[in-house]
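Re: your question about MarR family winged helix-turn-helix transcriptional regulator

S., sorry for the slow reply, the queue was backed up all week. Below is exactly what I fed in.
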Amino acid sequence: MAVSLDEANDLFLGLLRVQKLLVAAKHAAPRLEEGVDVAAYPVLFVVAGAGTVRISELATTLHNDVSTVSRQVSALVTSGLLDKSADPSDGRALVVSLTERGRTVLDQIQTNRSRWFQGLLADWEPAATAEFVTRLRELGDALDANLRARGAATPPMPFTSMRDQHQKED
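Result:
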């Protein structure tokens, strides 16, 4: 059975509220790495999942302007969290990858955020949490497919969880 218009609106308004609260929480959260803007953290998440990636691909994945992502990458390189190098397949282009320090900082970011969310979800049942994560991923996939169909995006690289990253290493 399809979702009703009222149910779709309720979901949209709920997500809008959560989005605004997450932005407020992001700005109130302590900085884990001095000099690194929390807005650049998603760059670290995507690079961790990709291994090595072009800045233009990062911008596409993050649905951001290339100039914005380029500034974020430059700050992360200056902070020693990312390395820039020539793209092996096209020496004119640059790729970025995590440094060892970047990996350590990313682990700290994800651990701290996971602990914070664990506290928020203290009353949730594990099965309900798993179902919510599944549905949230499905919603993200539907949004991404809709954007691609409109020509607004190309297939992104995935954001990876700590669990996904550790499984890659094993």
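The domain at 29-117+155-169 is CATH 1.10.10.10 (Arc Repressor Mutant, subunit A). The helical segments are 5-28, 41-50, 55-62, 66-78, 100-120, 126-149, 162-169.

Happy to talk it through on Thursday.
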